[in-house]
Each structure stands twice: as structure tokens, then as C-alpha cells.
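Predict structure. Input: Class I SAM-dependent methyltransferase, 250 residues.
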Amino acid sequence: MKTNWAETYYRKQFELMTSKSAYPPSYFFEEEVPVLLEQVGRPFTTVLELGAGRGDIANILARRDREIVTVELVEEICDYAKKHAHQNVQVLCGDFNTIKLQQDFDLILYLDGFGVGNDYDQSFLLQRIFNWLSDDGYALIDIYQPLYWQKIAGQEMYPFGIGNIIRKYDYDETGNRMTDTWWEKGKEKEAITQSLACYSPEQIYTLCKKAGLQIIAYYPSGAMDFETGAFQKIASLDECLSYRIKLKKK
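Output follows.
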């Protein structure tokens, strides 16, 4: 997963959001977990969360008697996660492409981050997810919807109402990638950008199939209406910011 931008971006984003108290409130994660449980739809015990960040989702699941392993790339974020981890959470610092895991899991999560690298990188990671998944397990992965990002390219905003941080969304037509750029007001030269591949439902279906994984459900997220400034919690699969796929082994 290490690229020219990933480690630098996520470290700087973590520093900015921590220093400005710009993280989503705790109820944001508390509301997300029941959605995840409903999407899984059956009991599970062991969880692998990729790109787990500070471990907010992992800790809530752990308090519900699940055993969680999290993998995060940036050492500083891992240090924070370890200090705040529930006893049922094991925090690992490493690269998805090289880290060695000795068990399989009932549930694998990759929320809000899939698409680092090129199609080969996604295929490689999906194959690793196949290997980490128990025979009757599920994976839930968020995928960025290209039609949405094409439509909102160029939009700027203040994330979480913090007036001195500016965030700009854009779209790379050549690479079919969303870009998400952050900078502090007056410090445009220090801007940081992430670039994540976007996939239509048909495209991600093909990638997953090659890895031996079958998509059994699509769950569209909401979409930001920049004309009204309101976030629409319900959007169609063609209009959503991203959609979640539910995977099992074929």
C-alpha cells in the first residue's frame, strides 16, 4: 500500500485533524456500527479492519464482544490507536501488501479508503482479503463512485466546520480517480492530496471475481448536495459518493 503520497498524506491529515479537533464526533461512529451489523446479517466473532485509523469503529465492535485486529500504515496513528485500544483490539502497524497475518477472519472491513494504487494493486489486495477471509466469512468494502466525483469536481469546503482548513474535491479523468486535497488557509504550498481509484459497480465486480470473491450486495451511501449545503443520507447507486460491497468467497 505504500505509495509516494499515502504515508505522508495520512500522517499530515491526522496531525491537522487532531490539532484542530476536526474528527467526527463519537456518535458518528456509534451510528455506523449498527449499520455494519445489519449489513453483515449474522453472528461473527473475529474481525480484521484495514485502514482502521484511530480505531473508533474497532473499539465499538470490541465492546460488543468481538475480537478485532486492525492494520494501519502510519506509525503515529498506530501509537494513538494503541493508547486508546479496547482490550479486545490488537493494533498492527504495517502495509496491507506485505503484512503477515496468521489467522482468518469472520469479517473483514475496509471503510473509506479503498483505491490506493492502480488496478493491479487493488487486485493484489483483494486476493489477500480472499486469503484472510474464513470460508463462510464476509468482507465489507467502500468503493468510490466515479459518476459522483465527476459531477462535483472542483468543489471546496471547510471540513467539520473548521474555518482555517480547506478541502477540495476533484477528479482525474485520465486515471478515473478522485482526489481529496487539504491545506491550512494561507499555506496552499503545503497542501496534501490523496488519490483513490473509482469503480463502477460493474468494474469492481470484475476485479472481485478475478480474486475469487463474489459480490452479494451493494449498499449506496449518501451524497453531498453542494447547491444546498446539505448531506443527503439516501442516494441511488449512480448518485452516491461511495457504495459498500458485501463479499464472500465464490
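The chain has a mean pLDDT of 94.
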